[in-house]
Specification:
Largest sheet: 4 strands, mixed
InterPro entries: Imm63 (IPR028952)
Distance between the termini: 54 Å
Helix content: 40-55%
Radius of gyration: 17 Å
Protein name: Immunity protein 63
Shape: elongated
Length: 160
């Protein structure tokens, strides 16, 4: 019989097997309401949710376990990417922000790290996340020319 403990343990095993550090704790059931991701299984639905100060801040549910696993790890890997980026930023404080300078967009480092982690689990998951990250990196740019170079595993600007 499927229950949240079995699902939780399976997710933790995937993370351990692929050396995915779980900086953002995942709770089995409702957590402390501090924004942490929580998992639940109810009436045949896999549920990922978060509460912040008593209000639900995120809710996702599906009956597809593969889809659920992707969503969980996409969140974990993105969170880990931003943790990594913050550590790197301390060494590069002097970079000023410019919407049209990819190297000044701190999200570049975070998204690259997230994609590296997703790729450890599944190249399909990495490929699935790439368009969303490209969209976000291009959002404020005048020329929408950022793409993910699969050979270098980095975001680049077309023509550079």
């Amino acid at each position: 019989m499927i229950n949240r403990d079995i699902i939780y343990n399976e997710l933790k095993e995937i993370a351990k097997k692929n050396n995915i550090e779980d900086f953002q704790s995942i709770c089995c059931g409702r957590g402390l309401d501090c924004g942490e991701l929580c998992i639940e299984y109810n009436y045949g639905k896999y549920i990922l949710f978060a509460y912040d100060r008593g209000n639900e801040s995120f809710h996702y549910e599906t009956d597809d376990i593969a889809e659920f696993k992707y969503t969980v790890f996409q969140h974990i890997c993105t969170h880990n990417g931003f943790n990594y980026e913050v550590k790197q930023r301390k060494n590069n404080d002097s970079i000023s922000r410019d919407n049209d300078n990819l190297m000044s967009d701190h999200r570049k480092i975070a998204f690259e790290y997230a994609l590296h982690q997703l790729n450890k689990i599944s190249s399909i998951w990495m490929e699935r996340a790439i368009p969303e990250y490209e969209k976000l990196l291009n959002l404020w740019r005048k020329s929408k020319d950022v793409y993910f170079n699969r050979d270098t595993m980095e975001f680049e600007v077309k023509g550079d």
